[in-house]
Write a structure and sequence with these properties.
The protein is α+β, with helices and mostly antiparallel strands. It has three helices and twelve strands, in the order αβαβββββββββββα. The C terminus is likely disordered. The structure holds dinuclear copper ion. Dinuclear copper ion binds next to loops.
Length: 203
């Protein structure tokens, strides 16, 4: 019968421990070096990766931001798509986009090559701004106004996907950004016609 008791404070008997093999030491060395590379990449991406918010960030009351968005809509509205206003601000303008469960308000109509300050915020919970199919991702947090300097570099009819789970309708939270090639035309009738033809295959 085995009556011997062991505690974790005593070493097991016998030759259970051998110095690490050279190959193991080499691997530990490689892994450590790689850890250091990844560690260095964090600040490197911050400064060199172009992944930082390009503009301002300030605190804002969600309802105040929403009111500002509504004002923006009233000012530059050129049409609507099934009740969602389509807004075409002039180049250089401050653009307001409110995320809320479960929509992106309003639809933006921008001009390729023009610069805008895109203000993003949420009325309720955390949402994720993801421009599809372009690789842009941004957290939209209630209480913060993120003013991103953007310059659309491709024309097209893009979708904004919500990439942060925000509730039961999360998967339906799809917005639109239309980027026009041509210089902005003041003729709203033309814009509305263009929009009508592009909504055909949407969603
Ligand atoms: Cu908004 Cu998910």
């Amino acid at each position: 019968m085995h009556t011997e008791t062991h505690t974790g404070l005593e070493s097991p008997r016998g030759n259970w421990w051998k110095p690490a093999h050279k190959a193991e030491k080499v691997w530990v060395g490689i892994a450590f070096a790689w850890c250091m590379v990844l560690f260095a990449m964090m600040p490197l991406w911050h400064w060199k990766g172009g992944q930082n918010p390009s503009g301002i960030r300030r605190r804002v009351e969600p309802t105040a931001f929403y009111a500002r968005t509504e004002e923006f809509i009233k000012q530059y509205k050129v049409g609507d798509d099934r009740g969602m206003p389509i807004v075409q601000p002039p180049p250089g303008a401050d653009v307001y986009l409110t995320a809320m469960a479960f929509q992106w308000r309003p639809i933006l109509k921008l001009q390729k090559g023009a610069q805008y300050t895109l203000h993003l915020s949420s009325l309720d919970v955390n949402h994720g701004f993801s421009l599809f199919p372009i690789n842009v991702n941004f957290q939209v947090v209630p209480g913060y106004d993120y003013g991103l300097r953007v310059r659309p570099n491709a024309a097209g009819d893009f979708r904004i996907m919500c990439n942060e789970f925000c509730g039961i309708g999360h998967h339906t939270m799809v917005g639109r950004v239309i980027v026009d090639d041509a210089p902005a035309v003041a003729n709203t009738a033309t814009s509305a016609a263009t929009v009508a033809t592009t909504t055909g295959g949407a969603r």
